[in-house]
Design goal:
Elements lengths: L14 H11 L5 H14 L3 H13 L4 H6 L11 H14 L8 H10 L2 H23 L14
Helix pairs in contact: 1-7, 2-3, 2-5, 2-7, 5-6, 5-7
Amino acid sequence: MERITFQNTPNGLYDGLYQMGKYIDTSGLSKSLLLLVDYHVSQLNRCAFCLDMHYKEAIEAGETSVRLSMLSAWRESEAFSEQEAAVLEFAEAVTLVANREISDQVYQLMLDHYTENEVAAWTLAIVKINCWNRFMTTFKTKAGHYQVGQFA
């Protein structure tokens, strides 16, 4: 069955997501950690297009292939800082909210490392990548051809 392509969506459909991205980009959140979150959430959602895109972007930005390869098992790895682990835990909770509530413990862990404004911005960043994952998986956007900066 043929699906809608990224290029054939109604004009303006993604405008809100682009605005979210602009807000997040100026929020002061770590760019390298944002890339890890985008990659990890895409792993959780099994979005091949976004995995391809965010892997390439992370490598281009200086992330290591070793850390990216361990990201799905970050709890068992010593490669991630406490701040990174807090955000990864939070990203999983927000992404998998239908399976379990976001516990006070997970939320407090974020507050131990980030201000309330930063927690709000992290929430928006996680919601944004979840939204992109849902578009790309619904439309079955082909993976493997992304070039860094293609959508800049």
